[in-house]
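2024-03-11 09:14:02 INFO receiving multi-entity request
2024-03-11 09:14:02 INFO entity count = three
2024-03-11 09:14:03 INFO echoing inputs for audit
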Amino acid sequence: MHLSFKRLRRILGALTLTFSSLHAAQAADVQVAVAANFTAPMQEIAALFAKETGHKADLSFGSTGKFYAQISNGAPFEVFLSADDKTAARLVSDGKAVGTTLMPYALGSLVLWSPTEGMVDGQGKVLATGTFAHLAVANPKLAPYGVAAMQALHKLGLADKLQSKIVMGENIGQTYQFVHTGNAQLGFVALSQVMKDGEISKGSAWRVPAEMHAPIRQDAVVLVRGKDNPAAAALMQYLKSDAARAIIQSYGYGIIE
Amino acid sequence: MPFNETDLRAIGLTLRLAGTTMALLLVLCTPLAWWLARTRSRWRGPLSAVVALPLVLPPTVIGFYLLVALGPNGPLGQLTTALGLGTLPFTFWGLVLGSLIYSLPFAVQPLQGAFEAIGERPLEAAATLGAGPLDRFFTVALPLARGGFVTAAILSFAHTVGEFGVVLMLGGNIPGVTRVISVQIYDHVEALEYTQAHWLAGGMVVFSFIVLLGLNLTRRARLLP
Amino acid sequence: MNEESEGINARLVVQRRTFTLDVDLQLPGSGFIALFGPSGCGKTTCLRALAGLERANPGLVRVAGTTWQDDTAGIWLPTHQRALGYVFQEASLFAHLSVGGNITYAQRRVRPGARSAAAAPAVALERAVNLLGLTGLMDRRPATLSGGERQRVAIARALAAQPRVLLMDEPLAALDAGRKAELLPYLEALQRTLAIPVLYVSHALDEVARLATYMVLLDAGRVRASGSAEDLIARLDLPLAQGDAAATIVEGTLLRHDGAEHLSTLAFSGGELYVTSATSRPVGQRLRVRILARDVSLTLARQSGTSILNIVPATVTGLREDSPGQWMVALDAGGARLLARITQRSVHVLGITPGRTLFAQVKGVALLE
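2024-03-11 09:21:47 INFO inference complete, emitting structure
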């Protein structure tokens, strides 16, 4: 049977209409930029999010500074999960993000850690002894964990004394690498990096009390691009859900009530 | 020019790193390139491929594995500790080692090419005039390969100035010791300090352009009698 | 000091892909020794093996009383310790040195057994430079020289090293006809003045015919014939008596001059020859002349009323086809050897056969040295 071109077009047109209406009634996609340190928990959250709502979150991981530059220059992200509070707020004031959607999604926990058992005591007194060659800290210019670590050191009055021993990681991930490979004997890392099943899996650590530093608030915001995307709004909502919070806490982050 | 003090220290450190790396590479790569140019051993192919590896491997990969290998738990780190040198990450000499590996092919390949271009004949002629093997190397091979040395020096210097990934992994960003220009620019960008980043980056582009232009001119000058 | 210890002795075996070089050479200690043969017959290999640039296995090389290689005694002198000079086919001058720099390169590198008999190095250098006409070129760079000039510098450089033997590997092969013609006189000058032997590799008969005093014919890695140049070029059974360059050498004594007609008379074993360019030579001097086969024609009866001056009686000793329609005839003129190239038709018509007596008409006689 000869299929004329006109008939083919009509069939294709009908199919497309059916598909898109199905699509609209069903799930939407949302492009999400996620701070690198939140990779593992976000992957779990996204999986549950898809199961419960049918919406699909496409995740990109990277450094906050890089995302700022990319979003400012038109990168196609719709939701941004920052590693700090400053950058999300800046995007709002730049007009690239929707101010009313700005909200904290996690609180970072700082921990002084070493892979060597017995190196770090439960009160962090090892810092005062100075019996180590290198102390790894995230670059405070770039990473909120670094800012918090320096604040804690200042609070202990040890910032000047230990200055010569400090090696800086570009981000919390690299800071962890320095300690993990033994090149720095100990370092200030994120609790989420050393926590597994609610326990610090190996080595020795001092969980730095929250009073010793300004809170490491990680904020999320919907970007201008995603303001009409129902999946974006749904994701922001989901981050506050009990299921998501449970995941977040299991990774060693705090939550803001 | 809004270069602050850390910027200036970074520039000085970068030049020192590139200069040290260049000098060491010229000394170490000359015998290697000579051997590669003249040997007929079956190890020639594999060794050439190993020399070329840094061209292909991502610098952050090189840096990361060096970080592990040179750390206290790694094989090289245990060696340096046993020799009383401590561990190399976070030190200037650790960066030098990383740069030697990173810029290796940029020194070996021009040298090897220059040695190969000499061929057998001038060396045979020198032998018939009474020159022994070392004599032939210094009085005939080296002068004839001069162009290769210039290229190797300039390329390895410029390449090390632009090094980022290896330093990033291995450096620890210590001012005056491991904080080089490329890391400094990266930090400026990450901290949203775009103006400083522009100035430093612009400076690097101008520098590289001058270097490469100079290389081109010396090459052309040598082709003319 | 017997002949052998001053000359070149070599027994060389070298494996090549297409043939094996296997030669036993006993060469004189002076003169121009030509290693002649077709391309690929192993002449260059032989030269390089003598120089030590390649290793004969097994090999024995003794030059001017010094042993350079003797596998049975475990002796092996590397090239840079042998008192030799080597001229390559393409000059191979050092591009980073001037002409003067090239020539003096060897001066600071004294080898064991170097010819200190040839006075101080400075003198050797000056002689080489003068001999090859290089005085004006000393500051030039090799890249600015012509092919012929470069070869002259290469020769001077090799000589400045005070060698005991000069090895030359087809030095004219890479030059065009004009440059070759320019360089040949210099080689002839060398041939006259050098006290050391020159080992000259070539596949060009005309070069060899002009320069050689001794010849070794190589073919597929083996020595086919060796001996004095004069003897070898007259032989019909060798590829030397062929084509335009075929010639013989005749030796005689200068009898008298006729100044008015610019002619001289040379007495030789087969009679007399008139020579045109010998008027400056003293009467009684022994001279050698070259007679090209293409300049010799044959006649059964002595001609009169002909412009050819030189007509000598001769006996045919052999003949052979040279090229289609051309035959080479070997003659004996009272002990002196001649070659004549004539047409096939004439061979038939004149009935040329070995033993036939007739007259050889020599149109041109070239004075040697």
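2024-03-11 09:21:48 INFO post-check: DSSP finds nine helices and 21 strands in chain C.
2024-03-11 09:21:48 INFO post-check: The longest helix of chain C spans residues 177-193.
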